Amino acid sequence: MGENIIEIKTLTKSYEDNVVLNNISMNIKRNEFITLLGPSGCGKTTTLKILGGFENPDSGEVIFEGSNINDIPPYKRPLNTVFQKYALFPHMNVYENIAFGLKIKKLPKDEIDSKVKEILKLVSLENFEERSIESLSGGQQQRIAIARALVNEPKVLLLDEPLGALDLKLRKEMQLELKKIQKKLGITFVFVTHDQEEALTMSDKIIVMNKGIIQQMGTPEDIYNEPANAFVARFIGESNIIDGIMLEDYKVNFCNKDFKCVDKGFEKNEEVQVVIRPEDIKITDSEKGMLKGTVNSVIFKGVHYEIEVIEDDRSWIIHNTQNAKPGDIIGMDIYPEDIHIMRKVSENE
């Protein structure tokens, strides 16, 4: 995708006795849409604030295009930030809000006019120049906040949960809109969210964080299909996680049965954890299935049914378009490519 525009090297940050970032490192490539994903308190927003210059790390470096920017204040960094609370000026109209940074730079009026009109067209709000901020919907205010940041032509745009205040339908629309804007402008976006679907929809690369530590970095497909540990597997979508024994390359035992898989490189008879996504379990006749269980509950989710099945005291979640009834005895088939093997570690490691 290109060379690194930002390198974060061994950042640490604590507030009193609370370690928020624990020696994290990452690279961000030019023109990349990267998402920092994790639960509240995982360190993702602190990372963004350090990038923007609003917080100082206890140790570590932020390298921008080869130069350390730790001591450079926010207004001198070639990055702009859009916060969840858009911080628009209520006493200014749309034009004045967007033009604010350009006026600070003392650009000529005709150049400011041209840039404001161009950026309003980009966010699909042409002819909104004279509107008051209070007359805008939440989605429109969010677009204006993004326009105000982008009009300054930053090399990197930092976005701190900017869709959090929007309703579900508008959030989904804005996910696609943001990705389209990023691709059109070809600049780097660093996006912070706790919403897994949002991250999977928009990102070129996802960095999953928990307790100030990076758990996994990779493409949305890698993160979803090949979770590095139980935390990632549970946080990104739903998972069935079962203890197993890796008998040899491409062969694992769980639920007291041997299964073919596509994983290798483990020790013989190594204790492992097996991850199987709910949508990867096929329902079949109870006498033909690799496993057999009793349907405990069924919830209609719109595009599929969520079926809980009890198999030998284990609870399985299945997502299937085929309905079932509580009390039904069903078979379950799992194909080798749908069995993912993880080394057995505690979630605190």
From TrEMBL:
The organism's place on the tree of life at top rank:
Bacteria
Keywords in alphabetical order, please: ATP-binding, Cell membrane, Membrane, Nucleotide-binding, Translocase, Transport
On whether ATP-binding is a keyword of this UniProt record, the answer is yes
Name the Gene Ontology molecular function terms of this record. ABC-type putrescine transporter activity; ATP binding; ATP hydrolysis activity
Q: Name one Pfam family in it.
A: TOBE_2
InterPro entries reported for this sequence: AAA+_ATPase, ABC_SmlMolc_Importer, ABC_transporter-like_ATP-bd, ABC_transporter-like_CS, Mo/tungstate-bd_C_term_dom, NA-bd_OB-fold, P-loop_NTPase, PotA-like
Q: Which reaction does it catalyse?
A: ATP + H2O + polyamine-[polyamine-binding protein]Side 1 = ADP + phosphate + polyamineSide 2 + [polyamine-binding protein]Side 1
Q: Name one GO cellular component term.
A: ATP-binding cassette (ABC) transporter complex
> Domain ABC transporter: where?
6-236
| Keyword Metal-binding annotated | no
CDD domains registered for this protein in UniProt: ABC_PotA_N
Enzyme class, top EC level, equals: translocase
- What EC identifiers does the entry list? 7.6.2.11
Q: Which function does this protein serve?
A: Part of the ABC transporter complex PotABCD involved in spermidine/putrescine import. Responsible for energy coupling to the transport system.
Q: Which NCBIfam families match?
A: MMSYN1_0197, potA
Q: How does it assemble?
A: The complex is composed of two ATP-binding proteins (PotA), two transmembrane proteins (PotB and PotC) and a solute-binding protein (PotD).
Family from the record: Belongs to the ABC transporter superfamily. Spermidine/putrescine importer (TC 3.A.1.11.1) family.
What is the protein named?
Spermidine/putrescine import ATP-binding protein PotA
What is the protein's species of origin? Clostridium paridis
